[in-house]
Amino acid sequence: MNRPRLAVVVPALFFLVPMALRAAPSALSGAGLAAHVCSACHGPHGNSLISSFPKLAGQGQAYLLMQLHEFKEGKRKNAIMQAMAAGLTTAEMKAVAAYFSAQKMSRGLAQKRYVALGRRIYEGGLPKQHVPACMACHGVSGRGNEPAAYPRLAGQWSAYVYRQLVAFAHNRRPSPEGIMNYIAKRLTPAQMKAVASYVEGLR
Ligand code: HEC
Ligand code: HEC
């Protein structure tokens, strides 16, 4: 529905926002950056309104910071976010990561038809396919593990979660020790959809 509009807005932002960043005379605070730059896509206080953009609110600080560095260094590839991160200093990245991690992630919804399979994978893994339980790292209720920089999945857009699983499976996104690449390669698309929907419903 809002795709045609997005197709126009996103490329425009892609050019305008980095320009705005470079033009800024002094470093913005975390909240200032979030409000003036990131919110265009990631929504007010880090709760994006559409699944094209991940929610950042309530995400772990160490994880957010790590992702910003990976975009900046080109290890995680995304044209928009690589341009965004290129315009940020290390201090700004720290400040904006701290800001978003202190916000509250909005609730998501699981689709009923995916809950049974999604929960089974999340809580028990798929031993025959050598898939470990997601819960072991992402937490019993999906809130992640801040000291280990394991991201929160609870409440995140299922369409975004699914796209990341596909990206890991095709090695388009790296992960520490290749852990998520190993896991995602062992999931079928139907299993990815189910677990993605399930985690969106966690809170
Ligand atoms: C023009 C749109 C746009 C703007 C503005 C934008 N982002 Fe993003 N951001 C994206 C998209 C799209 C993704 C998903 C990238 C992918 O699929 O790998 C993303 C992903 C991220 C992620 C990874 C989240 C995760 O769960 O792994 C972080 C962190 C992030 N953005 C931080 C920021 C910060 C901080 C700002 C402001 C300085 C910002 N973004 C501004 C579009 C945007
Ligand atoms: C051994 C620990 C471990 C297990 C088990 C694990 N993960 Fe992960 N997961 C990670 C780490 C570490 C990352 C961060 C990767 C990075 O730095 O980009 C991650 C990232 C993710 C992301 C990206 C989140 C975002 O915001 O972009 C998704 C989605 C994900 N995992 C889903 C799953 C699912 C589904 C399972 C179960 C089938 C699972 N994970 C099992 C460690 C784990």
Properties at a glance:
Cytochrome Bc1 Complex, Chain D, domain 2; binds heme C; mainly alpha; 10 helices; single chain; 203 residues; 57% helix
Task: Please explain how this structure is put together.
The relative contact order is 0.14. The longest helix has 21 residues, at 3-23. The protein is built from ten helices and no strands. It is globular and about 50 Å long. The model has no long low-confidence stretch (mean pLDDT 91). Helix 2 (30-42) crosses helix 5. It folds into two domains: 3-101, Cytochrome c-like domain (Cytochrome Bc1 Complex, Chain D, domain 2, Orthogonal Bundle), CATH 1.10.760.10; 112-201, Cytochrome Bc1 Complex, Chain D, domain 2, CATH 1.10.760. With 203 residues, it is mainly alpha-helical.
Strand content: under 5%
Attached small molecules: heme C
CATH topology of the largest domain: Cytochrome Bc1 Complex, Chain D, domain 2
CATH top-level class of the largest domain: Mainly Alpha
Number of structurally distinct domains: 2
- Note the overall shape: globular
- The CATH superfamily name of the largest domain is Cytochrome c-like domain
Judged by helices, strands and strand pairing, the structural class is mainly alpha
Mean pLDDT: 91
Q: N- to C-terminal separation?
A: 27 Å
Report the CATH architecture of the largest domain: Orthogonal Bundle
